[in-house]
Design a protein that fits this description.
- By secondary structure, the protein is α/β, with parallel strands linked by helices.
- The protein has three domains: 1-66, Winged helix-like DNA-binding domain superfamily/Winged helix DNA-binding domain (Arc Repressor Mutant, subunit A, Orthogonal Bundle), CATH 1.10.10.10; 68-138 and 239-275, D-Maltodextrin-Binding Protein, domain 2, CATH 3.40.190; 142-237, D-Maltodextrin-Binding Protein, domain 2 (3-Layer(aba) Sandwich), CATH 3.40.190.
- The chain has eight helices and twelve strands.
- A five-stranded mixed sheet has the order 4-3-5-12-6. It has a three-stranded antiparallel sheet with strand order 10-7-11. It has a two-stranded antiparallel sheet with strand order 1-2.
Amino acid sequence: MGVLGNVVENPEGFPELEEEIGARLFRRTSRQVELTPAGKWLLPRAYEILDRVEQTRIGALLTSMGREGELRIGFSGTVVDLLPTLKSYQSRYPHVGIILKQMNSTMQIKALHENQIDIGVVTIPVYSDKIRTRPLIRIPFMAALPADHPLTAKPSISVHDLKDETFIITPQSAGPIYYDTIMGLFRHAGLTPRRIMEAQDLHTVMLLVIGGMGVTLTPSPYRPVHGLTLKPLDGVDLSLQVSLAWHADSKSEVLAEFLEFFFGSHYSETDDCWL
């Protein structure tokens, strides 16, 4: 492990690593060093191993500080949606460290399989007997506008109202279902946004809208955010099912306590404010 870490941080140590593994990992010339096929296969796995070592180190450190472990939460959307839950949970379990990882639903499912997160807040169906899910709430898509935008005077917004606006959206690579659904609304109306601006995550999209850079369609955040106005969409019956997901075989006591906290006292099926 020490050799692996040293080489990832300092490639000059590659002869020692090659000797330990028994394979040539680097192709060297007088002018450059490049990875061999074996090296390309190893590199992402090396980073994954080092990431797990770091997580283990953090967990041990938290324990030595008197904390009772850590809860790793994957989420899409914006962190604003999670704040009420996190505040309530932290108040109940002050000695548990909370680690937030923003990733799309597909990445969350993969991370649950690989024990990279404990809990996921997903918005796509999960077809795996290794992952348990529980539906929480169905959130309608809304038009998100800067608070001072002229369209905020309307009680509701149509897709046609947005045709001359700068439309802000996450790229297709970050969330193909979300991207295709939104752009499909414009195509169905026979429209194309006049200008498109892409941001890598929904949190950044919201900040750009608040800053007056454009508008978007989104199911999140569904709680009031200063500087952001949400309006219902005319003629659009589109919503997103939000579910909580976790690994069925997890032995984590912290996860078990969180599920008991969440479903036992924090979440109500009759209350929209589940977070």
